[in-house]
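Standup notes, protein team

Yesterday: finished cleaning the Cathartes aura set.
Today: peptidylprolyl isomerase structure.
Blockers: none.

Input for peptidylprolyl isomerase:
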Amino acid sequence: SRTQNEGHPKWFVLGVGQVIKGLDIAMMNMCPGEKRKVIIPPSLAYGQQGYVQGKIPPNATLIFEIELYAVNKGPRSVEAFNQIDKDSDKKLSELEISQYLKEEFARDGKKRHPSVHDEILADIFKKNDHDGDGFISAKEYNVYQHDEL
């Protein structure tokens, strides 16, 4: 939501419950650059309870206009973790993630205020460094557990 995200696109992992089920379903098989208008029934949105924080009433049918900007492998894949983990110590430091973000920002070529990088980096650690040790372990990073990590 550009409205709720101060004009910036919302990035999330599709299919793991980071958004309502209706959006997970609606965005399957979308291609970068594709736009869709979707109508999501209450059963695939917030149902009978609604969503107080977002002021969505109970049994609301939601309408979204979606534009998919990009699709990336991961970001929660083993391959992505190993790419970020430059020193191969099986944990991601602030420096490693910072460098990865800089590379990703350079790759997409969009102009961003420098504070965006710091805000995203802080948010990543706030949401993923569960044990507060200043690193994101393979277990903390991955949406799904992998035996190989």
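Follow-up from PR in the comments: Confidence is low (pLDDT under 50) at residues 143-149.
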